[in-house]
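Q: Focus on the chain.
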Amino acid sequence: MGKHQNNRSDFPDFSRRNLLKLAGAAAALGPLGLLVPERAFASGGRMLVLYYSKTGNTRELARYIQKTTNADIAEISPVTPYPSDYNETVRLSRLELLTGRRNPIQPLNVQLQQYDSIFLGTPLWWGTLAVPVLQFLTQHSLEGKRVLPFSTNAGGNRDKIFDDLLLLCPKSDVRSPLALRAGDLKNAQSEVNAWLRG
């Protein structure tokens, strides 16, 4: 007697092969149960999320991107932290931009040459990259790397961030940026995932 084969398309397939596929799909679930695009970075090589955050908004976005892509993560930190007073930080950062005299940043705990793609995160300061990120880019070359910029802002004009990044990384493959208002972060998962797929 031959092996019985069930040809009913509505009957669940509980074969070992299909169960392994389902297990793999479950493992692809990222933070908050969002499905990570399977081919989002199939050709991106080793990835790093590198960011500076003053208030924690950029850090929150950076951690989401890191968990979603399974990249490594590192933070850009000034040697002397900026003042807790918002207005004093605004004044000091403006002075740094105008004079070029900047607070040095601490050494990174990662080797940049290991990475092919770098997600670079920054808050919006005076319409451009935050000073610690500018300081980092003047000290480190990202030549030959794919750079994926993302930023958080309180609603200011963010047009200069991408242009300034192109000037500072002329030999990098700089991709389209993701810019989010700080107040929209909690509802931005679909927008972030769409950016990652793109």
